Amino acid sequence: xxxxxxxxxxxxxxxxxxxxxxxxxxxxxxxxxxxxxxxxxxxxxxxxxxxxxxxxxxxxxxxxxxxxxxxxxxxxxxxxxxxxxxxxxxxxxxxxxxxxxxxxxxxxxxxxxxxxxxxxxxxxxxxxxxxxxxxxxxxxxxxxxxxxxxxxxxxxxxxxxxxxxxxxxxxxxxxxxxxxxxxxxxxxxxxxxxxxxxxxxxxxxx
Length: 206
Known about the structure:
By secondary structure, this protein is of the alpha+beta class. The chain has helices at residues 3-15, 39-62, 68-96, 148-151, 173-203, and strands spanning 23-27, 99-104, 107-112, 116-121, 127-132, 135-140, 165-170. The chain contains 5 helices and 7 strands. The strands form 2 sheets. A 4-stranded antiparallel β-sheet has the order 1-2-3-4, sandwiched between helices. A 3-stranded antiparallel β-sheet has the order 5-6-7, with no helix packed on it. The mean pLDDT is 86.
């Protein structure tokens, strides 16, 4: 990322901070990272589906008395299969170019487009880490269960929506991990202070 992009990234991240909130990290998903750990399964099923529906479509077109419904249904199925096998990667890359991730000492924030802002308070969210092909995925809160997890961050989730709040395909993994470690250390220190205060009150009751 060049200095111009970095300055724009930081400026937008600073704009969403609440009073007293500290910016720890800001970044974007890598639009060149297309695959997820479930793509071997998705691609295998999609290519088989495309081949089978393509065969049915050709048979319907070449039959002595082509039926409009058979041709139409198989054509739609063929188009859907092609989208899942190939087209979704373009959708995914385009979406990533409109997303920015922000991590503060209080919240995880996802900026979508010009006006979309979603946030999750860190104190209420378990954090799950997943490193895939040198790119870091961080899920804040509960992870989706199967079969929804298969479609997360696939591009095909365009139709069903995302079931989780996550930073996907972050190439700046070391910096993001360092920010998360800082948050974890601060949380441990706060808990120790809170336990110490509680112990002091119990030993010196009024």
